[in-house]
């Protein structure tokens, strides 16, 4: 501790250890928090097409188009250990060939500091809702759930399912695809 | 360029070093506690980091340069032996011994 460099060295190392302890304390204060927020989903329109899926099997597969409304208040989510949220809407259903199918339809990244009231109307799905086969036609029960990934400053990344979900049946007939 | 920095004296005596270490550890711990409570209250971890960095800067200013308060207890060296031509072998040993104490 006699020269400036050795004093600076011990000062800096002590500061880093204290910062590490504070980060661990930050993680501990939010590790066991219940992160569920009520969510309101409403589907306004569903359309079903039968098209060629060039990435899958060679027969025509079912392609669904879902238009939905979404409203949620996620202000309670952003405590001091949350850096951003990754929200996604997924559809779950059962077909004859598979017991459980899960397809992600739409997602969004909500950064800290952006507006925390989600009020989306008439949103189209971002990703294709393809089924491998024709299991979507006349499917009685397709459940849309909103889930999110919490990206923290320090600690584990919990995956939470929202508490609102919507089940809806799909139409019985395919729409004919128009070609221009 | 580094030789310029080596000519600036930056030593402290032992009690001064102990005082400097206590000072910076105390300042950083206090700023850590304040920062943790403040960040928890404002719900932003960035404030905690800023407060700890401020504590780090304050303790840098207080403990890195050799202020006079760290030189209050200098070591009392023995007075140098007078130059005697009859003992040429002992003198260099004693002067080299004194030079090693920093």
Automatic annotation (TrEMBL), chain A:
<keyword id="KW-1133">Transmembrane helix</keyword>
<dbReference type="Pfam" id="PF04573">
    <property type="entry name" value="SPC22"/>
</dbReference>
<dbReference type="InterPro" id="IPR007653">
    <property type="entry name" value="SPC3"/>
</dbReference>
<protein>
    <recommendedName>
        <fullName>Signal peptidase complex subunit 3</fullName>
    </recommendedName>
</protein>
<keyword id="KW-0472">Membrane</keyword>
<keyword id="KW-0735">Signal-anchor</keyword>
<dbReference type="GO" id="GO:0005787">
    <property type="term" value="C:signal peptidase complex"/>
</dbReference>
<dbReference type="GO" id="GO:0045047">
    <property type="term" value="P:protein targeting to ER"/>
</dbReference>
<keyword id="KW-0256">Endoplasmic reticulum</keyword>
<feature type="transmembrane region" description="Helical">
    <location>
        <begin position="12"/>
        <end position="32"/>
    </location>
</feature>
<keyword id="KW-0812">Transmembrane</keyword>
<comment type="similarity">
    <text>Belongs to the SPCS3 family.</text>
</comment>
<dbReference type="GO" id="GO:0006465">
    <property type="term" value="P:signal peptide processing"/>
</dbReference>
<comment type="function">
    <text>Essential component of the signal peptidase complex (SPC) which catalyzes the cleavage of N-terminal signal sequences from nascent proteins as they are translocated into the lumen of the endoplasmic reticulum. Essential for the SPC catalytic activity, possibly by stabilizing and positioning the active center of the complex close to the lumenal surface.</text>
</comment>
Automatic annotation (TrEMBL), chain B:
<comment type="subunit">
    <text>Component of the signal peptidase complex paralog A (SPC-A) composed of a catalytic subunit SEC11A and three accessory subunits SPCS1, SPCS2 and SPCS3. Component of the signal peptidase complex paralog C (SPC-C) composed of a catalytic subunit SEC11C and three accessory subunits SPCS1, SPCS2 and SPCS3. Within the complex, interacts with SPCS2 and SPCS3. The complex induces a local thinning of the ER membrane which is used to measure the length of the signal peptide (SP) h-region of protein substrates. This ensures the selectivity of the complex towards h-regions shorter than 18-20 amino acids.</text>
</comment>
<keyword id="KW-0472">Membrane</keyword>
<keyword id="KW-1133">Transmembrane helix</keyword>
<dbReference type="GO" id="GO:0005787">
    <property type="term" value="C:signal peptidase complex"/>
</dbReference>
<comment type="similarity">
    <text>Belongs to the SPCS1 family.</text>
</comment>
<feature type="transmembrane region" description="Helical">
    <location>
        <begin position="21"/>
        <end position="41"/>
    </location>
</feature>
<comment type="function">
    <text>Component of the signal peptidase complex (SPC) which catalyzes the cleavage of N-terminal signal sequences from nascent proteins as they are translocated into the lumen of the endoplasmic reticulum. Dispensable for SPC enzymatic activity.</text>
</comment>
<protein>
    <recommendedName>
        <fullName>Signal peptidase complex subunit 1</fullName>
    </recommendedName>
</protein>
<keyword id="KW-0256">Endoplasmic reticulum</keyword>
<dbReference type="Pfam" id="PF06645">
    <property type="entry name" value="SPC12"/>
</dbReference>
<dbReference type="GO" id="GO:0006465">
    <property type="term" value="P:signal peptide processing"/>
</dbReference>
<keyword id="KW-0812">Transmembrane</keyword>
<feature type="region of interest" description="Disordered">
    <location>
        <begin position="80"/>
        <end position="102"/>
    </location>
</feature>
<feature type="transmembrane region" description="Helical">
    <location>
        <begin position="47"/>
        <end position="67"/>
    </location>
</feature>
<dbReference type="GO" id="GO:0045047">
    <property type="term" value="P:protein targeting to ER"/>
</dbReference>
<dbReference type="InterPro" id="IPR009542">
    <property type="entry name" value="Spc1/SPCS1"/>
</dbReference>
